[in-house]
Amino acid sequence: xxxxxxxxxxxxxxxxxxxxxxxxxxxxxxxxxxxxxxxxxxxxxxxxxxxxxxxxxxxxxxxxxxxxxxxxxxxxxxxxxxxxxxxxxxxxxxxxxxxxxxxxxxxxxxxxxxxxxxxxxxxxxxxxxxxxxxxxxxxxxxxxxxxxxxxxxxxxxxxxxxxxxxxxxxxxxxxxxxxxxxxxxxxxxxxxxxxxxxxxxxxxxxxxxxxxxxxxxxxxxxxxxxxxxxxxxxxxxxxxxxxxxxxxxxxxxxxxxxx
Length: 259
Description:
This protein is α/β, with parallel strands linked by helices and 259 residues long.
């Protein structure tokens, strides 16, 4: 029997640990997306990962057998670029990240600067190394403000957990004493951007995620009903450690579909 959450009109859905692990689609996802599309629900895949652009995420899902147009994706990279564009139009940044972050910054009219940037921006990056982190530390010491795309310390893959933005950024905070401002979940700015894109009210919306410290907290702070799925980072035994609780807990998307 389908879950009562499916009566909502709009859905904000995390990706890693909810939809897939790395390149492995999780059970029930095909049926869930087909249901959203067939019933005319509003939906947005909202990921704290800053590596890929919406088009790349759409292509990844299509390779896994699920076709979703690129306009249904929103990332922490886009949230970061929008924040900087609003705060300081045309500012310059030193960025450590992948194409998804760099493209978002360029498209927001920001310029790259590794000498005296206004901001140091750090996201997930395979190019992360001793030299890039040393450069970031010196630029922050020189007055650049520190921005992180998201506070996640780890991310799930089919092979296990990997370090995410929060872990990669920590050495810069420790070495400089600066505290980063994070734009990804649970920052309410990202949730408000999602609701605007969906053109929906929070009362009619649910967020489905796998992390208590980002997805569920983001929903609670934005007064959006929450569903924690146990296919990602947070295990059922972890839930009592938090001072807040999700509205619902499910083993995975397959349970929401009654599979």
